[in-house]
Every structure is written in C-alpha cells, then in structure tokens.
Amino acid sequence: MIFRAVEDADLIRKARRGDVEAYNLLISRWERRVYNYLLRIVANREDALDLSQDVFLKAYQNLRKLDDPGRFAPWLYRIAHNEAYSLFRKRRPEGEAEELQPETLTGEASPGGNAIFPIEMTLAVSSALAKLSADQRETVILKIYQGFKFEEIAEIVACPVSTVKSRLYTALDLLKAELAPVKARGVS
Amino acid sequence: MSCSPFELRDYYFKELAENERRLTEVHVKTCANCREELERLRATEAVLLTLSDEEIPQRIGFISDPVFRPSPFRRGWDALWGSAARLGFASAAMLSVALIVFALARPVPRISTPAPAIDRAALEADFSKRLNDAVEKAVAVNEARQASQTMELLAKYERRNELERQAMIVRVAEYLDVEKKRLNTRILASNGDISGASQ
Q: Percent of chain B having pLDDT more than 70?
C-alpha cells in the first residue's frame, strides 16, 4: 500500500511536469475504480464513462493544485463526486426534490425459485441499494466497494466524519433488513 | 445493538484506535450479542460484495498536446515549490543577497525616466551617416598618406638626379681639363719641334 502510494506520487510529480505518459499510467491504475464508483452513482454506463473521462481531464488540469500527492485518491474521488452531482443537477428539473434513483444495471428478470442464483443476488443488491437515499448509497459505495476510510469519505463528500458514519450505519441497517431474505436463501 | 464500550461497527471497519480496538476485541470474546452483530455485518457486506466491479468499456488515455502542457515557466515554478528543501534554500539565498545588498549600498532615489521610443528609420539613418563619415575620414587619411609618400619619393628622386648631374658635370669638367692639358702639352711639344728645326 505504501509502495503503491509512493509510485502514484512519483507519477503525479512527473505528470505535473507535463509527462502525459506518466499520467496515462496513473489513469490505468484508477480508471476501473473511478468508473465503477460513478456507475453505481449515476447507474448508466455511458454517463459513467463520459464522467470518468471528464474526471481524469479535470484532474490533469488541476494536478498542480493537489497539495499532497499522497492524498491523490480522495482528491480524485472528490472531483468524481462533484462531476456526478453536477450531472444530477443538470438532469433534475428545477425545484424538484426527488432524488435520482439508479436503474437496475443488469436488466434481466429474476429466474425465481428457492435457490439463489448470482444474477438474482445482483438484482437484489441493486434493488436494495436503489432504495437508499443518494447520500447513503454513495457512502456505502465509498466504504464497502471502494474501501475508503471515514476521514477520506468525509473529504470526498465534504461533510463531517460523524455525518459519514451516521449515513453508513443507517444505510447498513436498511440494507440488512432488505437483504435478509437473500442472505437466508444462499449467502454464507 | 452493540454493548461494546466503543462503536462495534467502527471496530468492524477497523476505524478504532489501537487501544480501543484491543478493548473491544476483549469485550467481543465474552459478549454473544456483539458477536452476533458482527456476524450480521459480515453477512450484509458479503451480500453487497456479490455486486462485482465491471470492466471499463473503453480505456481512458490522453495524447501529448502542447495545449494541455504546462508552460516551461509553470513547470519550473512547480518544481521549485514542489520541493521544501529547494524552496528553503532559495529563500535563504534570497535573504542573504538582500542583507548583503542593504549592507553595502544605500538606496539612492532615482527619477525614473520613460524609455524613449525606438525610431528604426532614424536609427538606420544615423548609422548610415556615421558609416559614411567613417569611410570618408578613412579615405582622406589614406589619400593624404599616399600624397605625402609620393612627395617624399619625388623629392628623393630629384635630389638623386641633382647629385648625379653635378657628378657628371664634375666628370665632364675634369675630362675637359685633362684634354685641355693634353692639348696644351701637344701644342708645346709641337712648338719645340718647330723651334729646334728652325735653329
């Protein structure tokens, strides 16, 4: 982990001096994670890809503003968070308070029956996540799927650590109840 | 919920400080409720993680475009500010220079005058005039030197001619004198012969 952080910091220093190849290498390390983070927030592959490209372009243009290269990941995800919420604001009609809910990504029907199939599990998880508020969902994604610390999540979504914890634990209680039938049927 | 002295879910997510983590660990070993809560958290996370990451449909990459490249000044500036050691050294150097300058020189108030506008045509005319003057002066000096040399040579030649002419006159005079003496000798000799014959 430390070795990786040092290498990223080295690539960032090179990219700051105009080394595009170093930056491309840095992108190759982070693009999959950023894409999946955005995909789970905006729930649309095309939007997630477009946003990922915008995120890495903005990151390159603002790389010199990054004070500590060791904090690249939260800084990059902060840009991704802002881009995603900027898209939400553009798409949401003026004055409408309703939150954007993600669509089901797989688009396939549940095969049914007592046995739990992977596709059914995926659908159940997607559906359970969709029932969370946007803030709760993002916190779960950043903690469970992206593995950030509370402090880093607080930096990404720009709110106190206590708020991050509150959102996560409320979301986990909701998910626990929502996914209880699925857990009972198949996952150890 | 948890009866742990600290938040059990913080413990599960490894977000507790080391001493708190140890205390919670000890508590969990003796508390069935907390163990069950931890198990429920594990199960929920396991279900959530069945939603795996997708591959990005298209790789992202940038080509080297000068438009996006920072300027050399910006790169140098970033390199300077990017290193605490270099920045410290630069600050110390600047401070030293400032101290030396203020110690050695007192500031003298100066009236700043605006830089005159550069007239290219006037500059070219001035340059041509200076060039012509320099050439004319050089030609005049050269001509004077040549005239002087010519005069010297002429005078020398005339002096030599005069000497040669005088020498020739002397030689002709000597020759005439010799011839005259020789003629006189012959005349005297012939006069002696005549007088002897008559006696």
A: 78
